[in-house]
Design goal:
The complex is a heterodimer. Chain A is mainly β. Chain A has no helices and 10 strands. In chain A, the strands form 2 sheets. In chain A, strands 1, 3, 4, 8, 9 and 10 form a 6-stranded mixed sheet that branches. In chain A, strand 3 and strand 4 (45-51) form a beta hairpin. The relative contact order of chain A is 0.33. Chain B contains no helices and 11 strands. Chain B has strands at 5-7, 10-13, 19-24, 31-38, 42-50, 53-56, 65-71, 74-79, 88-95, 102-103, 107-111. At the A-B interface, strand 3, strand 4 and strand 9 of A face strand 4, strand 5, strand 9 and strand 10 of B.
């Protein structure tokens, strides 16, 4: 029979539009957060990180927002390009868990040309 | 730097055989992580090392799995005996303290 796997939420955007990918994290004690991008057949690739003493951090075309009140993290990609198509994972480090990261289930971003 | 290096990139084996996956972390990183990724369970941490010492192996599925890090530049993940349910992509990652983890390209394991 058909196996049941993780159902990745999918975000479909038009090339040139802005993308917003959301992530809810679980532990209020988490103090470090990372966004990774994973393209098909490759390992996760670091995009941007943010520490819990910050609310916002910007990189090249990407911005991460952290709302500790509601334990929410978002990744904004400006002027989305076809090369941005991938699965995006958020990860959190809990400050009582050494240097381990806990990964979310991922969101698939599809960019329509 | 070449990044995290993993070998082999693909491995196909038969049930019951021993499988050894290899990883070379980024020079200077003192943390090394082994992950498994499947459609069913996503990305799971199996074990991680700090300064070549295993720190947390609570994610290792069972005694068939073992990992070693004999020196700062090499680690292995061994499955003996392998089973079809071990089929997955296995990633190695390395980092320094409190910084991002850098992932290798992964080893796709298929156990027939």
């Amino acid at each position: 029979g058909e196996s049941v796997g993780l159902h990745l939420p999918t975000l479909s955007v038009q090339e040139g539009d802005n993308s917003i990918i959301n992530c809810a994290y679980s532990n209020s004690a988490s103090d470090y957060f990372i966004w990774y991008k994973q393209e098909s057949g490759k390992g996760p690739q670091f995009i941007i990180d943010i520490r819990s003493n910050m609310d916002k951090r910007q990189g090249q075309r990407v911005t991460v927002l952290l709302n500790k009140t509601v334990k929410h993290l978002s990744l904004q990609i400006a002027a989305t390009q076809p090369g941005d198509s991938a699965v995006y994972f958020c990860a959190e480090r809990r400050n009582n868990a050494g240097n381990m990261l806990t990964f979310g289930g991922g969101t698939r971003l599809m960019v329509k040309p | 730097d070449a990044g995290v290096i993993q070998s082999p990139r693909h491995e196909v084996t038969e049930m019951g055989q021993e499988v050894t996956l290899r990883c070379k972390p980024i020079s200077g990183h003192d943390y090394l992580f082994w992950y498994r990724q499947t459609m069913m369970r996503g990305l799971e941490l199996l074990i991680y090392f700090n300064n070549n010492v295993p720190i947390d192996d609570s994610g290792m599925p069972e005694d068939r799995f073992s990992a070693k890090m004999p020196n700062a530049s090499f680690s292995t993940l061994k499955i003996q005996p392998s089973e079809p349910r071990d089929s997955a992509v296995y990633f190695c990652a390395s980092s320094s303290w409190y910084n991002e983890q850098f992932f290798g390209p992964g080893t796709r394991l298929t156990v027939l």
